[in-house]
Automatic annotation (TrEMBL), chain A:
CDD domains: arch_bact_SO_family_Moco. This is Sulfite oxidase-like oxidoreductase. Signal peptide: none annotated. Gene3D superfamilies: Oxidoreductase, molybdopterin-binding domain (3.90.420.10). Residues 35-179 form the Oxidoreductase molybdopterin-binding domain.
Automatic annotation (TrEMBL), chain B:
This is Hydrogenase maturation nickel metallochaperone HypA. It comes from Nocardioides guangzhouensis. The lineage of its organism: Bacteria, Bacillati, Actinomycetota, Actinomycetes, Propionibacteriales.
């Protein structure tokens, strides 16, 4: 298993510079849930990418963890206004998963065990911006935080970082996810405070 | 249902703004499994980023409610019918 360390530690000034507008700093890791915590073992876990043409590519847990594993240190920002700085994760970059998938899609709809979905532009999953993460702060990702594996897209509000991720549909047209259907923003940039539609 | 933060009584205030009737005594029929539940018995998660009420039988979502600064969003696609006693 190769290990690449890639950090986002560019700015090391005071925490204030790293807090997007309207956010406060917390050292806890609050749990927000929209349903019961799905119980998914690593043995039965799979991750499936479906292209707009219907082509499917599925990875087992063993296949996922055989890909290059990266350790990243990132700040995360929840739309409910808490932010955590310098959170440490290990996982596989979406670049590694999507490099063999033929697609001209512009959008992605992320699916989770338990039925959760969230949408974002495909380009926000590429170029070292997103991971399938399975370790947090040195431990296996706990079920309440999305284990066995969650999406990690730290540059967008954390509801885009879907817990219990099971797959991604690549789409020509944007399709709103679970919260985006109910007034939350399709993109969700914390630095532009894009919490709700129209922000 | 394990892990539900609240029961359906938490919906009383927010839903009062939408429905004039007392909705926690209404019956909701699950579009997934057909189970009839009193709204007050639903398993409710939230309150943030929004309220999610699930069927005690099959855990499907019956109702979602989000309050943004300028709107209240109510999604009932998982509710086949809502029966309000008169
Ligand atoms: Zn049901």
């Amino acid at each position: 298993m190769s290990i690449v360390t890639r950090g986002f530690r560019g700015r090391r000034e005071g925490a204030d510079d790293r807090l997007p507008p309207g956010q406060y700093l917390t050292h806890d890791f609050p749990v927000l849930s929209a349903g019961p915590t799905p119980v998914v073992s690593r043995d039965e876990w799979t991750f499936t990418v479906r292209s707009e043409g219907g082509e499917r590519r599925t990875w087992s847990w063993a296949e996922l963890t055989a890909l290059p594993v990266e350790e990243v240190t990132v700040d995360i920002h929840c739309v409910t206004r808490w932010s955590r700085l310098d959170t440490v994760w290990r996982g596989v970059s979406l670049d590694a998963l999507l490099e063999d998938v033929e697609s001209a899609a512009d959008f992605a709809l992320v699916h989770s065990h338990g039925g959760y979905t969230t949408n974002l532009p495909l380009e926000d999953l590429l170029d070292g911006q997103a991971w399938i993460a399975f370790e947090h702060d040195g431990d296996d990702l706990s079920p309440e935080h999305g284990g066995p594996a969650r999406l990690l897209v730290p540059h967008l509000y954390f509801w885009k970082s879907a817990k219990w991720v099971s797959g991604i549909d690549l789409l020509v047209q944007d399709e709103p996810g679970f919260w985006e259907q109910l007034g939350y923003h399709d993109y969700g940039d914390p630095w532009r405070e894009q919490r709700y539609q129209g922000d | 249902m394990a892990g539900a933060t609240y029961d359906g009584n938490l919906l009383a205030g927010p839903l009062a703004e939408v429905f004039a009737a007392e909705v926690t005594v209404a019956h909701a029929r699950c579009a997934g499994c057909g189970r009839d539940s009193v709204v007050a018995e639903l398993a409710v998660y939230g309150p943030d980023p929004g309220l999610v009420a699930r069927c005690p039988g099959c855990s499907d979502v019956l109702l979602r409610l989000v309050r943004t600064p300028d709107a209240t969003w109510l999604d009932l696609r998982g509710t086949a019918a809502l029966r309000l006693p008169t």
